[in-house]
Write a structure and sequence with these properties.
11% helix; 4-stranded antiparallel β-sheet; mainly beta; Immunoglobulin-like
């Protein structure tokens, strides 16, 4: 059922399958190698599109040129605790720098019980420019539904393993 989310995100061929040990070794050999950890901690006060049930929520996002990432589904909760952490090995180059300065991380929240394939329950848009200045992003971000109305909040964290060095 999570396939309905694929209409919102494009997939690519790059994968995030490297271990932290691999990144450390690659960073030692190439100081332009870094690792970004994206953590979706929780959501609060998220309502389903229809008021007849509590939502079964999960999140999907796409970072840079990696494959889409989805969290586990938390059943029957308006306040799911995802505690989802993913590490992305990245080459600190001009493409990544441009992406960080010009893009945002959009995290979509879906209700697994929703029968309509064409709508998300909420989404958060997180500007990434702070990462280009070697600053972590931590905070609570407003969620909005597909009508643009506020629909809860999301706690996230994005941080580098090593100092970010712009090209």
């Amino acid at each position: 059922e999570k396939m309905k989310a694929q209409g919102y995100l494009a997939t690519t061929s790059r994968q995030s399958t490297k271990t932290s040990n691999d990144i450390e070794q690659r960073h030692d050999l190439d100081p332009n190698m870094n690792e970004l950890t994206i953590a979706i901690l929780n959501c609060s006060n998220v309502k389903s599109a229809t008021s007849d049930h509590q939502p079964d929520l999960y999140c999907i996002y796409k970072f840079h040129d990696f494959l889409d990432h989805d969290t586990i589904t938390i059943p029957s909760s308006n306040n799911p605790n995802f505690d989802d952490r993913t590490q992305y090995p990245v080459q600190m180059d001009i493409d990544l720098d441009r992406y960080l300065k010009q893009s945002q991380l959009t995290i979509f929240v879906f209700d697994d019980r929703d029968q309509r394939d064409d709508r998300y329950v909420a989404r958060a848009d997180i500007p990434l420019i702070s990462l280009a200045h070697d600053n972590a992003i931590r905070g609570t971000f407003d969620l909005h539904n597909d009508q643009g109305e506020r629909n809860g909040t999301m706690d996230v964290s994005l941080k580098w393993t090593y100092t970010y060095l712009p090209p």
